[in-house]
Amino acid sequence: MHPELTGAQALTRVLLGESVRHVYGIVGGKLSPLLHAVSQEPALRYIGTRHEAAGPMMAAATYAATGRLAVALAEMGPGGLNLISGLGVAFNNNLPLLAITTNQHRAAAYPHNGMFMDLDTVAVSRPITKWNAVVHDARRIPEIARRAIREALSGRPGPVHLDIPQDVLDQRCRYSESEFDLTPARYRFTGRIRPDADGVARAVDVLADARRPLIVAGGGVIASEAGEQIRQLAARLRCPVVPTQMALGVVSSDSPHFIGHGGLIAGPPIREAFAEADVILSVGCRWSSWMWDEHGPLARRTHRTIAINLDASALGHPAVHEVALQADARAALGDLLSVGGERLSQGRDPAWLERMREARRAHEKTLADLAADDAPAMHPAALAREIAAAFPRDALAVYDGGHTSFWSNDLTPVHDVRTRFHEPGMSHLGFGLPYAMALKASHPDRPVLHITGDGSFGFSMNELDTARRYGLAVVTIIHNNESWGIIRAGQKSSRGFEFGTSLSGTDYAAIARGFGCHGETVTTPAEVAPAMARALASGRPAVLDCRTAFVPHPCMPLFGSMNRYSFESLVPGG
After folding, report:
1. Structural element, H or E, at residue 306
2. FRET pair for 540, CA 20 to 30 Å: which of 305, 325, 397, 416?
3. What are the strands of the beta sheet with 448-453, ordered from one edge?
């Protein structure tokens, strides 16, 4: 058979073959052929946002939560420009998605003729996509769409972008039905890359010699679904595990191997662990500056480091290694466990793990003492403690805001992977509400909480309208200290001034009610749990405007140390 389809219809057939289920964006005139095609496919759910940047943020969250590709749409010109900041979130966090924009018809585009809304969207998006292209002929849509998806999901994952002029989307062509019978395994690699056998043997030798091993688990562990292998190896090595912010839940926060997550924002136990460790096993971690101090990556040249990463460019930079395995995390860890056997259980410092656990308990006591503060304005640690106590065990959570997220990072329990979400790569304020909406769209039966600051919330609170229209009952909890708190503190401490940091006078609960959502103001710790229960029971998107004091997190000096990194700090052995 050779059905006649528009280019847009052919594109949706390819998307369905990749099990795409969610399309996010804003309707536009020149997108009409594609929107029409999407509307004809019951398996595709379209969610219309209020700003194009929210689309790729939601698509990135869909992959982070489910491992499934999603699509973000934008109209030509300003639509493509608005898309860019959301693409940055996906790009810097290695989260794949397919972005699709449209453009002037082929007679007036590439090169453009100066019509209204002209934009070389491919050139604009190139620095923050893994691969992008203009589609000039609908006959090539299946081929080029599959290439884009292959690029998005191969090696280090990331967003890709296709710019498709309106007349190409509307172009009618005859396609062979067999064109759409291809399974993903026919046009892209879907297996696991095994490590070099000699490299595995060398890695086992290093681990067998370790007295104080430390495992660092990054986002590659989540993408590879290798959490169980990390836990098995930690038990065999009797060692602590540090999950990065992209790997929360790899070990639960009540695990005997957990000493904190996210790098130095988890406090002194992390610095002590790196200072004392003799061997570091880094799995799926690219050593971003969340894992640095003033001397650079916490994995020093004095450590014996084993690095496992699917992406060759992440091996040896910025942290050097003794053994490198270019491989899928799950496959590599499986080989280490198989080849290492009982050798991996011998020769440990018997006090190593318990010493690090005691450091963690001391840090937790510091936080508990802060949470007991009964000052008139609610302490952020007290708010975080009350949120944690009322947290449904099956809930998903997004942490938005720079300083605010530190309190949640420490005090919110984590039991499993793909349940707690940061955005460490771009650290884009305001990503949280779109992220949370995508989580709710993918997991409609689970509670979803969005914990944010008042400054961050202002970037995307317009998406409350999206949440209400599509029945995405996300609960937003705002640490509202009526300021850009960490910026104000920095201005005062470094230069003795304060400028442009006030955010006073806004009633976020009233704004929520204006959007048709549930909204409450919370002023004391005792009010938090009942307000959360009412918000969850409302069945609507909800905002809890929690009035707090600004109090610097105790790990701010440690976090700030990465900003003191310089060439002068590079000393022998650093």
Report:
1. strand 304-309
2. 416
3. 420-421, 396-399, 448-453, 475-480, 542-547, 518-522
